[in-house]
Amino acid sequence: MTKLANITQQIERRLPFQWNAAHTVLAVAILVLALAFASVIKLELVVNGLFLGLIVALGAIGMTLVYGILRFAHVAQGDFMTFGAYISFFLLGTLFPKIGMDSTGLGPFTFGYPLLIAIPITAAALVCLAVLLDVAVYRRLRRRGVNLVVLAMASLGIAIALRGLVQLIWGGGTEQLPRVSKYFYQLPMDVRIPPDNIFIGAVSLTLVVALYLFLTRSKMGKAMRATADNPELARVSGINTEHVIWWTWAIGAALAATAGVLLAVFQAQLFPIMGWRFLLPLFGAVVLGGVGNPYGALVGALTIGVASEVSTEWINPTYKPAVAFGIMILVLLIRPRGIFGVRD
């Protein structure tokens, strides 16, 4: 435990109420809004950071679910996002036009209604891929009793293989999604929001709420939580842990696929290393929120997204990850197990 963490604990004990992670999140949110309304930072950057953070959250939640059940870092999560983005690119740019489906200009959005069809198809394809990889690779390694480092290295190999497959099929250049130009929504305080961001936010929040309901209300969701808490106890209690693992891969892959498509829409382009570059923010969100905690991953992702975007007001955008990780390190010095991490 660091000296700073000890000081923080002493301050918390002297407060007239029990300070917890929710209070920390609320305090930071109030501070950011106050700085925005005081024109110290641009509110538009905060808003854009929230939308970016929601994309990070989908990938990070999937990653932290895999860690919570299988206890290893799924390095291939970023490349799952890339593969999903390219599958949707194939559907929108190659398959759908051949069967007469216009891929641009749906209402206020820059894309057409085929994207609404492409997202579930892409998610289903990634789910099949993730379950197949578990059967062919990860399950074999688990049964041989390999340590977690070997599993992480296997996922790194899969990430490299997926990236190579993308480059083999689509090449190494940058691709543009089929889209048409649209006007931005103009809000008070010079906040401009692209219509596509509204779609990104709606889809992301819908998936987060659906996952929350699944984990708290469904039988499989409760089995997943029990397996994450104590795998051996869950097994002897009659829970089919192999089915739990498959559900975990399926959810993580579906979230990664959706995040990849939304990221391509957000930045209007896709390239083979986009998911690899996104891997650092994913890890940052997972660690910042508390490893293995899906709700913490959401808060960590929003923090990473806002910090990255706001930092561009003063520094070159190239250094956005450095600023985000600087904040992560500062938070970990105060709360070594992350914002929602539980003390031993």
CATH fold-level assignment: ABC transporter involved in vitamin B12 uptake, BtuC
Q: What is the number of helical segments per DSSP (H or I, 4+ residues)?
A: 13
Shape: globular
Helix content: over 70%
Average pLDDT: 85
Q: How many discrete domains?
A: 1
Gap between N and C termini:
11 Å
Radius of gyration: 21 Å
**Are there runs of 5+ residues with pLDDT below 50, and where?**
15-19
Question: Within the largest sheet, what's the order of strands?
Answer: 1-4
What percentage of the residues does DSSP assign to strands (E)?
A: under 5%
Order of helices and strands: HHHHHHEEEHHHHEHHH
**CATH class type:** Mainly Alpha
Tally of strands: 4
The secondary-structure class comes to: mainly alpha
Major sheet size, sense and barrel closure: 2 strands, antiparallel
CATH architecture: Orthogonal Bundle
Structure characteristics:
344 residues, mainly alpha, ABC transporter involved in vitamin B12 uptake, BtuC, two-stranded antiparallel sheet
Kindly describe this structure.
The chain has 344 residues and is mostly helical. The protein has one domain (3-334): ABC transporter involved in vitamin B12 uptake, BtuC, CATH 1.10.3470. It is 72% helix and 3% strand. It has 13 helices and four strands. The strands form two sheets. It has a two-stranded antiparallel ribbon with strand order 1-4. Strands 2-3 form a two-stranded antiparallel sheet. A hairpin with a 3-residue loop joins strand 2 (185-187) and strand 3. Helix 7 packs across helix 8, helix 11 (274-289) crosses helix 12 and helix 12 (294-311) crosses helix 13. The longest helix is centred in the middle third of the chain and has 30 residues, at 114-143. The protein is globular, with a radius of gyration of 21 Å. Mean pLDDT is 85; it is low at 15-19.
